[in-house]
Amino acid sequence: MSKRELDSQLEEEEVGDAEIGDDEQISAQPAALIGTSRKRQQQAAFSSWFTKQAKDIAHDGLTKVMKTQDEETLSVKAIMARQESDIIIASPRDYQMELFERAKHENTIAVLDTGSGKTLIAVLLLRHIIDQELEHRAASKSKRISFFLVDKVALVFQQYAVLKANLSQDIERVCGAMGTDLWTANVWRDLFERNMVIVATADVLLHCLNHAFITIEQINLLVFDEAHHAKKGHAYARIIKEYCLHASERRRPRIFGMTASPVDIGTDDIVDLHEKAKELEVLLNARIVTNVNSLLLQQAVHRPKPVLFKYHYHPTPFITPFYRDLWNQYHNVKAFEQIFKKSKEVSNQLGAWCSDGYWMFAFSDAQAKKVEMKVQQRSLGGKDLTPAQLLKLDQDIILLREAQEVVKHHDFSIPTIDPTTFSLSPKVIKLYEMLRQVFNEATKSRCIVFVEKRHTAKLLKMVFDLIGGGHLHSGVLIGTASGSVQGMNYSLKDQVVTLMKFRNGDINCLFATSVAEEGLDIQDCNIIIRFDPAKTMIQYIQSRGRGRSRESMFWHLVDNSLDEQERLITLVRAEAAMRDFCEKLPADRRLLLEEVEREHVAIKERAHRSYVETSTGAKLTYDFALVVLSHFVNALPHEDGDDLSINYVVTSTAGQFVCEVILPSQSPIRSAVGKAAARKSIARRSAAFEACLALRRGKYLDAMLLPIYAKQAPAMRNALLALSEKASNSYYMQAKPSLWAELRGSVPESLYVNVIHLSDVWDRPTQCLALLTRQELPIIPAFPVYRVDGERIDVTITSHKSAIQISTEQITMLTSFFLRIYKDVFNKTFEHNDEQMSYWVAPLLDGNLDRELNTIIDWAALERLHHNQSQKWSSGMPKESLVDKFLVDPFDGGRRLFTKGIAENMKATDPVPEGVAPGGKTDSIISYSVKLWKASRLKRTWDVDQPVIIADKIQHRLNILAPPNEAERAAVTHCYICPEPMEISQLSTGVAAMSLLFPAILHRIESYLIAIEHCQEAGLSIATPLALEAITKDSENSDDANSEKINFQHGMGANYERLELIGDAFLKMATSLAIFVNHISIDEFQMHVSRMLLLCNKNLFDHAKAHGRFKYIRSQGFSRRTWYPEGLRLLGGKGPKNTELKFELRHNLGDKTIADVCEAMIGAAFVTHFTSGYGEPTQMDEAVKAITIFVCSKDHDMRTWEDYSLTYHIPAYQIGDGNASQRDLAQRIRASHDYAFKNPRLLRSAFLHPSVPKLWEGLPSYQRLEFLGDSLLDMTAVTYLWYKYPTADPQWLTEHKMAMVSNRFLGTVCVKLGFHRHLRHNTQSIESQIRRFVEELEAAEERAAGSRDYWTGIKEAPKCLADIVEAYVGAMFIDSGFKYAEVQRFFDEHIKWFFDDMSIYDTYANNHPVTRMYKLLSETFSCHNFRLMADELEADNVNPTMALAGLIVHDKMLASGQAQSARYAKIKASLSAWDMLKDLSPAEFKKKYGCDCKATGEAKKMDEVVGTVL
Asked: Is the pTM higher than 0.85?
């Protein structure tokens, strides 16, 4: 229940049920309402503009979707772009022209050797077809486009580069990795409209044809690269059989196939060569054409002859000791079956070391998690498990984790080439000898070692990384298909990066599977080794063709038996037979393609049913049904963790198979049964086909066979890592600490005493109270409360460590006492229930805990209150007995009074004197004393002779956690009252006075307990005051450090803003460190991306939400409605009667707020243990652990500061003494900063600009070190300001920190230290830029006459100067063994001096665009009716998330900005506004924009109008 709902529920009309504070509320509300009204107008203006902009952006986004997709795959494309050829093919050879001329007039399959220029023929043919198409379009014929189809994704980029360089028309590349399954028909239509040639994988075109995004008649040319794949169910064959053969011959596209062999035959089917070649020609309706001039072709293409290297074959697999140990412990674990099998297979093929090593990557952290997930999925399978099955599952998972630890800690040592040990197999040893011939010394050779299996490639790389020597640099090139759980996954980007390194020479030996055989153009490769024999002739030809050099060699590893040698000879003969077949083809011969044969192909395909959507032409086939069904299921609305698997259940009936497909529970169609089929695979396709038909009939698939549900995009797609600041989601907020409820439900036998002390006297004398609890309370920090005169009083809670024994009678008296406080002071009547009490309050004789605890409790007062009810005045009662009493008005629950004396000269019938507390009739004191409706008054009579009492009416101020406002200070409490209408409470005035303080004190205690509970749940040791500060959100926009506080909650104490700032800085430093040490080979860009995924608000929010951390956030201040204890039944007073009190609070939180609280918790963990300056590294351990908890990623699993250094594996380039030049650099740099580098090579790296080739010194550039140093310096700057200015707000701290880490300042430091003289670069412009900056800086320093901010007035420094300083700091930090104290010393010695007085940088900070815009409007133009606002557009399949900002001036939009986050959108809007306004005079501004604001002498605070921008 929200606070608003709770307040509404508790509202009642009975006067007698009113509470303290119900009437005459004191506030400054009217002024706030004026500001609120203005805000509403500004919000309305912004919302109207924002809605219009959103529509415009949605409309424009469609035309930009291809660009968006380019950005999605930029990392791969950018790498490929570096390799793209810009060579224009201008001189085709005669045989190429001859084949081109034939292809112009008829469908052709060009059979030419690898490297003979088949692609050039395709280029010539494309030019010809494009020219024809342009003529057709000029004649108003329908548009058609060409497709260049490839079999592998990597070839899309390679062939695109060639075609792009040689075709003048628009061309585009498309592959599934670009997320094409998310593209709409409009996106495809736009793509086809803009381009004349599309380079794509065949699957992409098949997808488009199936969905009718394009028809086969709209294609004028199909180029099939590696055309021999056109067989069986390959996408090449399906395009022909399912679409080309069904179109009229006149509208079919021209077909051009390219291959090194028209058939792909093995060693046993040479006799089938003619038949298979004929089948290919029949299918493609084309004829095979080759070059008949062998001499001419040999001049263009080098064919190295095979050379055999023989080894002794070990025929029998064996088990190693490590295998035996694992088998003995884990052979019953089903998930290990395949790993055991593979490991044993590897033993005889590669040797014992590789057999053991197979477990190494099969049990990496990532793969172990996948194994565990597979075990869980296999066990659960969508079913409820029995207890026994659950126990078995738990045992299996324990064994999985145990095995991972065993493998992780096993000593794999280094393999030996001693054949007697069989550490490596004879085959691997022979390979070692062969590679030693090539790489024994520095060489420019490139080698590819072809293997059959992916794990062979990875294992060989592991081996040769250890024994290959210093000149062999190995890599792995395997397919991109997802591997099994044994660690075989390999991405497209991995392929591209590997090929790039191979071309550049960073890798000179590739261990590759068949993925490297086809098409990949690697010009400098000169050694081809077949570690595993080719199985088909095409493999033999294509792997040989990778050796393009004239001196290339083709080596084959064969065992001593004759079998492998005979298989190789058979492949050589097969190639010879193929060439003989091609050369004997007559120049003008066309194979007789009888129509009956072509019809046979079509009939064969029509045997399986198909469905065509008549309105669009989309076609559903048996094969395509599997794809459509998979897409549909993936698009179903679901929650994270939902099972979206499709289950195919196949049964056998009368020798045939029937399949039923079962869809997830979220699907509107749950199952479908297919027709009987002779094979299981066909039965499954039939079931999928029937399910798709049912979905289409139900209109769950649209006319293009796409799901009607918007497909859910992958996580982190487009790096949508920013979060909305809007409090758009409602979350549960924990109202009470769990501690209260843990032991509730029984009568305790002992209680803990917690004495409440005030540091000074209150507004009136109070009696000390103790909070009695069922459990021992943790230490509660002191906190302030405020008297009505504004004086601060500190509250301390002194808790005794041992409990006092308590009897049942005493518990009953304590309960009675506490319930009397509720009734008499707060007008709440609760049912007496000892078992349901969360805590008790007891009056104390004094607060001295040094004596027996039982003796300090005022048991006499408790007993008196237990046996006596409130008194009524009687005429015989002495007047003196009415002094110093606590009076309760039974007719007005909100009126309570303290009596001070007797007004001897006044009567009950006298008029009420002036200047008394308002709240009653004034015709007489007795009328003033009676709070009844008129009708009730007339029924009552009162004793006119009763005395008049001088009293103080209790002020309606329960939230003593906040200082009083002016109205509360000025409130009148003095009054005169008659006692007869009142009840005289048995509570003493001291107890009553202290009880009035209790709600606010209890609220703060409960807030501390919830903060402690949060820390315990997270497993963090954080000082309690900081733990509460970190989760305190005191307004709806606490995360806007500089915006006007909306619904500000007074008295909550410090909010999370400052802790978030320092937590953010530590998070940046720690995640930078983690990425640096975990990924020693990735570049700076990848490091930025990896770090972003760790520290982004989205990651923090997702994990915080999953752990329910939102419930701990304190977003609501003290409320007089919710301070009461839960569990008691309310009998009287406001609220639902006879209902057990329970507070179900909810609060609206922005996603960013929850993420910010996580950063604040990190900051609290840091500040709790870290002393400013040179703190010990162990003081950061808790903050490191906090990051691991809140980031929840394998990239940051550190628990202590030391873990960073323990994780770091020193790269080879850092090791060694370095050369003379590097040692000299270390000595010279030490003269500038007294630190002696142990690794001069590391220091040199810090001074190497990215323009310097790595080959020059074999060292990387400074970019990785700069990435690390940037975060380290940022942390020192933030901690310096944070501790030096403990009251400064985050905006001020951030603005002034910007000066300390700006490029201009760090460039100044670089020059002061002379670092710039040691920079090594290979860019001519850098030298002149540095020289000009140095000259200008030295001149500015000379003019400054000692001023420390002299650097602020010069031009921006070349970025490389700041980079050097950051890289140096990063290098020093690594070299010192991760000593943060060294970074701090550098800061103190070279940076701190400039910033001893931060006030001199106020102007520099004010140059921020938003600050400058604010000051122009508020100070120069004296305008106060303006506001800078921002909001976010959610991402969709077309547009990424973006933020729009607008500056509203007098309810009209003045300027706007658009960016990826609200912060930068505000900056852009401010820059735009500055350009519009900077040249106007105040009078011109007021006239132009209708501003009638008056100068107030005090400008409106910036934080009221601009929000967070830094």
From this structure: no
